[in-house]
């Protein structure tokens, strides 16, 4: 039996040849809006004759178009990373194949021209069959790719009936196994376009730039009679096929100079934006306009927490603004061409783009790649069709510097053929595909999640494969941003900067794909795999972005912005070094200012004169005149935008650096001398009361407290849970989540309380000896903790510090230390030294899957107060880390969604000497050796005081 159209591995049928996406002065009407909709569980159950003009759809539901029907109460979203959620029997799909019938009746505008017309669908997931006024136009596959159908001959002024039957599963689904939600429907724009006879059918702009002469070479390939005009360049009516050379300003992601032009015939005018740039691979480097570029990139899926991949334009713009503001300079459109609007924004605002075809067959990996379409001739047309539609649609974007064949489809003839076709069609851009491990048909060597050591080897040219060695190297994915992380970005940057052929990478990934849901009490939270009752799913592996689902930057993005800032400001022996890490720009477009703080309080500020510094160079600037201070003095230098740009307001901080000027004064003499008093079951020392049996502090200045006690546990992060044997599994095997504290002795000395304990897991022989030494003077209570491993420790420690609980009313937090955001040993570049104030609520990072978060580092002192100003202050000798939350680490560990976390009555404080780093083991390397925390002999000291009013 011949396969049904949706199970046919061939591309769709009936559509017009792919062409560039553009809007012209020809008439167009959007057919977005409210359509009639009916979902059937299978094709067999779908209504007969729904395509007929007189079909009665009045009893149907309505559905907005564009949309995914699963996000409007029809069916449910499902998430898998690699596995196909149906039996793998290509090209067949389940007979229980949800079928969404869509109908729209529309009139033409009164002055609609009597000309040919096309119906354009920018994206239908996964297969659509289209009828207009009862006649079939064709079938489209390739969910994230456009299809156009000739429609003019069927149109009438009023009462046109457009019917689209969409199948959730099709042969195309085998090629669309990207790590994301399975969501169906007409999810991108539907447009009816008039196509005037004698108009511009298609065009390809060529705008190369010769960096030696400063000349652009401009031409347009199009049908005879098509002309190009660019008024700002004095180019008028340049016929298709002819080239002009003339001095121009080049386009780059850093300086996205576009020239407005028009491609025209007598019948149609197409406004275009031209960016001059030439991409080449030379000397083993990818160069644009003669200069090697460093990709500080992200992988971007299109996602919105309510509308999925039907992305509102505001969200596309928000993505661009957020990227530019966080020093992202490149995007890989993982793993399909984005909505065309996004690429327009990339041209205008400046981002390097790897445009990727809509292709992934990862699930065949589960079968040892048996039957993988990439090497099967029956799929060749589908592979070529997808690539062709990608390249033809997007060929005129200066922002696109590489074409990518797809993702994780292993290797095979069809990919090689797609590479060949692409190179022939568009020799102006190199071809990327990570899965061509031997680099047989690609132009750049690309890897995902290679660890630092391997990148170092690649940089050192130790690769035995000569083809690969000769190519530029990039990490198409790195820095897996799942949950709390990524850690280790700084060390990647150092490698990218050390080796000229290592040209950067693309963090995985831009945004968490959480979907908004309400719990029984109507509280919103973000759902992930499994939350919709899926039988097969990959849980929260879809929550791995540097943006939370609502587009709030996560600490990972703030860290990225700092690590990859294009200007680096550091201290030198006598002054300030300002290094220019742009690829093209000098520093003249920035203003520099300085601010001097004593103990976190501003004492002086001013502008800093920085000479023009060329890319790759640096200048040394003398320190500004600074007033004398007695406290700790830090100079902060900021590079800001003097004027608003299209993507950020004036004053936006592009880069900053902090220079220590005056070290912290010696700590005040230790609090000692107060006598220890023994009364009943209590001990009194200075402001503290202790339980005489356990030696635990019970009140501090009259406030009830619990602890502090040694604490090693943290609610594991996604990265702690990653790669076997995971840190988490080792920690749990070692019982670190259920340590027991044995009080060996409570020693009462004249002016000191010493509590000796052994902290150890049940059923195991090793532990930590922890001694608490308490002393006090009139106002201060001082604790010195000494720890020492007892026995052989089998694993790292999540944290080493103290935990205590204080009254819940102490919800106002102020500190002098690193901030304002959370920071961890291997993700702390974005934290600066200063004085900060936050509520306890604001200290939490609401990771979609709850886990350790909110740690503040290098704290000198911390104050927790209630509304009336009463509370406590904790001073380090000299530094400590802290976190404060309204639930315990155990509650955080047990929570699966943010709404599981219910504030309790107490505030739980962690006061740490150190925490284990974050790493990226959820997908990629774990914590680098220098950031791993081991059980070791250690000591640290804190001083507690009470505060009575505002400091
Ligand atoms: C890569 C893949 C991505 C994503 C990532 C893990 O292998 O290309 O699509 O699945 O792993 O989050």
TrEMBL record:
Family: Belongs to the glycosyl hydrolase 2 family.
Catalysed reactions listed for this entry: Hydrolysis of terminal non-reducing beta-D-galactose residues in beta-D-galactosides
UniProt cross-references to Pfam families, sorted A to Z: Bgal_small_N, Glyco_hydro_2_C, Glyco_hydro_2_N, LacZ_4
The organism's place on the tree of life at top rank: Bacteria
GO biological process terms held by the UniProt record: lactose catabolic process
Name recorded for this polypeptide: Beta-galactosidase
Source organism: Amycolatopsis saalfeldensis
GO CC list: beta-galactosidase complex
EC number: 3.2.1.23
Enzyme class per UniProt: hydrolase
Gene Ontology molecular function terms on file: beta-galactosidase activity; carbohydrate binding
Beta galactosidase small chain/ domain residues: 684-945
Keywords: Glycosidase, Hydrolase
């Amino acid at each position: 039996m011949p396969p049904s159209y949706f199970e046919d591995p061939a591309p769709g049928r009936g559509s017009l040849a792919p062409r560039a996406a553009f809007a012209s002065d020809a008439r167009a009407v959007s057919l977005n809006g409210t359509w009639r909709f009916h979902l059937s569980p299978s094709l067999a159950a779908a209504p007969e004759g729904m395509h007929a003009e007189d079909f009665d759809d009045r009893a149907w539901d309505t559905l907005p178009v564009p949309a995914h029907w699963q996000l409007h109460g029809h069916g449910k979203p499902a998430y898998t990373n690699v596995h196909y959620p149906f039996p793998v029997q290509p090209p067949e799909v389940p007979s229980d194949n949800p079928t969404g019938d869509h109908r729209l009746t529309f009139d033409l505008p009164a002055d609609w021209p009597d000309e040919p017309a096309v119906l354009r669908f920018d994206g239908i997931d996964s297969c659509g069959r289209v009828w207009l006024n009862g006649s079939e136009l064709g079938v489209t596959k390739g969910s994230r790719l456009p299809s156009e159908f000739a429609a003019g001959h069927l149109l009438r002024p009023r009462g046109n009936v457009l019917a689209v039957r969409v199948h959730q599963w099709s042969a195309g689904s085998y090629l669309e196994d990207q790590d994301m939600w399975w969501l169906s429907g007409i999810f991108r724009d539907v447009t009816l376009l008039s196509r005037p006879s004698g108009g511009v059918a298609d065009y390809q702009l060529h705008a190369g730039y010769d960096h030696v002469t400063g000349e652009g070479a401009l031409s347009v390939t199009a049908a005879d009679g098509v002309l190009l005009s660019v008024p700002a360049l004095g180019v008028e009516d340049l016929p298709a096929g002819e080239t002009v050379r003339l001095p121009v300003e080049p386009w780059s992601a850093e300086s996205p100079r576009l020239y407005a032009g028009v491609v025209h015939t007598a019948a149609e005018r197409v406004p275009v934006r031209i960016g001059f740039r030439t991409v080449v691979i030379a000397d083993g480097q990818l160069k644009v306009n003669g200069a090697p570029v460093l990709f500080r990139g992200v992988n971007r899926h299109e996602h919105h927490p309510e509308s999925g991949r039907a992305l509102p334009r505001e969200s596309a713009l928000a993505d661009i603004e957020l990227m530019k503001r966080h020093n992202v300079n490149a995007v890989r459109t993982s793993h399909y061409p984005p909505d065309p609007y996004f690429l327009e924004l990339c041209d205008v605002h400046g981002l390097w783009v790897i445009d990727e075809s809509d292709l992934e067959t990862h699930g065949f990996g589960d079968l040892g790649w048996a039957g993988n379409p990439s090497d099967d001739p029956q799929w060749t047309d589908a592979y070529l069709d997808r690539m062709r539609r990608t390249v033809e649609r997007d060929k005129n974007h200066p922002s696109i510097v590489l074409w990518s064949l797809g993702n994780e489809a292993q290797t095979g003839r069809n990919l090689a053929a797609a590479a060949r076709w692409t190179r022939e069609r568009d020799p102006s851009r190199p071809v990327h595909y990570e899965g061509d491990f031997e680099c047989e048909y690609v132009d750049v060597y690309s890897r995902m999640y290679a660890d630092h050591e391997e990148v170092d080897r690649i940089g050192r040219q130790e690769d035995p494969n000569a083809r690969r060695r000769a190519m530029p190297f990039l990490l198409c994915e790195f820095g897996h941003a799942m949950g709390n992380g990524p850690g280790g970005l700084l060390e990647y940057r150092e490698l990218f900067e050390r080796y000229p052929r290592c040209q950067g990478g693309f963090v995985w990934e831009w945004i968490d794909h959480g979907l908004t849901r309400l719990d029984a009490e109507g509280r919103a939270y973000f759902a992930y795999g499994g939350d919709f009752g899926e039988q097969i799913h990959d849980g929260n592996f879809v929550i791995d972005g540097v943006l939370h689902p609502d587009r709030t930057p996560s600490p990972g993005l703030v860290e990225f912005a700092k690590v990859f800032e294009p200007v680096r400001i550091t201290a030198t022996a006598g002054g300030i070094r300002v290094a220019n890490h742009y690829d093209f720009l000098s520093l003249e477009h920035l203003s520099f200012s300085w601010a001097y703080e004593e103990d976190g309080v501003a004492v002086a500020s001013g502008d800093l004169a920085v000479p023009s510094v060329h890319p790759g160079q640096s200048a040394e600037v003398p320190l500004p005149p600074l007033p004398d201070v007695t406290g700790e003095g830090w100079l902060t230098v900021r590079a800001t935008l003097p004027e608003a740009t299209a993507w950020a307001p004036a004053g936006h901080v592009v880069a900053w650096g902090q220079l220590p000027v005056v070290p912290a004064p010696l700590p005040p003499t230790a609090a000692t001398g107060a006598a220890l008093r023994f009364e009943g079951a209590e001990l009194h020392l200075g402001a503290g009361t202790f339980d005489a049996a356990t030696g635990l502090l019970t009140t501090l200045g009259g406030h009830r407290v619990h602890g502090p006690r040694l604490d090693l546990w943290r609610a594991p992060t996604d990265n702690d849970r990653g790669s076997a044997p995971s840190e988490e599994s080792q920690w749990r095997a070692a019982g670190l989540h259920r340590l027991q504290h044995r009080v060996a002795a409570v020693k009462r000395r004249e002016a000191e309380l010493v509590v000796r304990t052994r902290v150890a897991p049940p059923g195991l022989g090793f532990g930590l000896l922890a001694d608490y030494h308490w002393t006090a003077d009139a106002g201060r209570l001082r604790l010195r903790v000494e720890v020492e491993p007892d026995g052989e420790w089998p694993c790292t420690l999540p944290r080493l510090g103290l935990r205590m609980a204080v009254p819940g009313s102490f919800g106002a937090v102020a500190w002098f230390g690193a901030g304002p955001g959370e920071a961890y040993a291997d993700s702390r570049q974005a934290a600066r030294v200063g004085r900060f104030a936050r509520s306890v609520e604001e200290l939490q990072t609401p990771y979609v899957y709850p886990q350790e978060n909110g740690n503040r580092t290098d704290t000198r002192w911390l104050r927790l107060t209630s509304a009336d100003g009463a509370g406590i202050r904790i001073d380090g000798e000299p530094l400590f880390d802290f976190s404060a939350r309204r639930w315990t680490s155990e509650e955080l560990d047990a929570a699966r969604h943010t709404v599981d976390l219910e504030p309790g009555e107490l505030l739980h404080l962690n006061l740490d000497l150190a925490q284990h780093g974050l790493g990226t083991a959820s997908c990629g390397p774990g914590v680098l050796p220098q950031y791993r925390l081991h059980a070791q002999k250690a000591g640290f000291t804190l001083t507690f005081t009470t505060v009575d009013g505002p400091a």
